[in-house]
Amino acid sequence: MTEGRNYREAAASFGGVAAEYERGRPGYPDALFDALERLWGRGLDGARVLDVGAGTGIATRLLAARGARVVAVEPSPGMAARFLLSSPDLPLVRGTGDDLPFHDDSADLVTYAQAFHWTYPEKSVPEAVRVLRPGGAVAAWWNVYDETVPWVRARSERMAAALPDRYHGYGGVGGHVGHFAPAGLAVQRTSLHWARRVTVDHVITDLTSRSYLASLSPEERAPVLAAEREALFAVFPDGDVVEPFTVDLTVAVKPG
After folding, report:
1. Mean pLDDT computed over every residue of the chain
2. What per-residue confidence (pLDDT) applies to 205?
3. Is 174 exposed, middle or buried (0-12, 13-18, 19+ CB in 10 A)?
4. Rounded to the nearest 10 degrees, how much is the dihedral formed by the CA atoms of 219, 224, 228, 229?
5. Each residue of 136-181: pLDDT tens digit?
6. Is the pLDDT of residue 53 over 80?
7. What is the pTM of this model?
C-alpha cells in the first residue's frame, strides 16, 4: 500500500460515494481482456476468478460477460451494498486481498481492477499465490489518465494545487509489480490506450468518487469540484468531453 496520508481512511471513504463511483467510473475496453488472456495463456471462459476489491462490480460484470465464474471480494459495506443492487446475480464475499477467505488452490485467476494499491503486497501477494491453482495468475490493472493530453495534465496540476496533501498524481501500477517476481510468479506487462466520450457532469461525478476527494467532507470538496467544473467548461463549452486513458496491465503467472 502506498504510504503517506491515512490510506485506510481514504479506502474507507469509498463507501460514502458508492453511487457516484458506480455512475462515474470508466469501464474497461474489450482489448484489456484479450490482452489478459494472451499474457496468461488461457481463456477466461469457465475460469474461476476472484475479483478482489470489486467495488460496485464494474470489472466483475465484464469478467462474467467473458464467461468467467467470478466471485467478487469487497471489504466496504457501502460498496458491497451498491454491488448487490447492480449485480444481484453475481456472488459477493466480504473480505480483503490481505486475507482472502478462500481455500488453497481454489482459483484460476485473482484480479485487481483499480485495487491492488489498496493492499499490503507483503500480505496480498502470498495470499494470491496460496489460493491460486498451478498455472493460475494474478492480474492487476489500472485506468490511468493520459497526462500527455494538455487538458488532462492541466487538471492534474489544478488538483495538486488545490489538494497538496492528498493528490499526488495517479501513475497506475508503479512499483507494485516488483512484489510479484520474488514470489515466484512469471510477470508480464502491457498497456493499452482507449478513450470514452462523456459529459462534464459525468467527469465531475467520476472525480467525486476519487479517494483524494471522497475522503473530504461534502462541504470541503464542493468548492474544488465547482472550480473544476468551471475549468472544464472553459475547455469544452459544449459540455462534451473525450477522456483519454492508458490501461496498465500486469499478469503474474504461478508455475504449473
Report:
1. 92
2. 97
3. middle
4. 20
5. 999 999 999 999 999 999 999 999 999 998 887 765 555 677 889 8
6. yes
7. 0.93
SS3 sequence of the chain: CCCCCCHHHHHHHHHHHHHHHHHHCCCCCHHHHHHHHHHHCCCCCCCEEEEECCCCCHHHHHHHHCCCEEEEECCCHHHHHHHHHHCCCCCEECCECCECCCCCCCEEEEEEECCHHHCCHHHHHHHHHHHEEEEEEEEEEEEEECCCCHHHHHHHHHHHHHCCCCCCCCCCCHHHHHHCHHHCCEEEEEEEEEEEEEEHHHHHHHHHCCHHHHCCCHHHHHHHHHHHHHHHHHHCCCCEEEEEEEEEEEEEECCC
- The cell numbers describing 124, all together, are 496480498
**Structural domain spans, the chain:** 7-146+170-195+245-253
Q: In this structure, which CATH number among 3.90.1170.20, 3.30.450.40, 2.60.40.10, 3.40.50.150 belongs to the domain 7-146+170-195+245-253?
A: 3.40.50.150
- Encode pLDDT of 210-229 as tens digits: 989 998 999 999 999 999 99
**Backbone dihedral angles phi then psi of residue 185, each to the nearest 5 degrees:** -95, 145
Contact 213/221 with Cβ under 8 angstroms? yes
Residues 171-198: pLDDT tens digits? 555 567 788 989 999 999 999 999 999 9
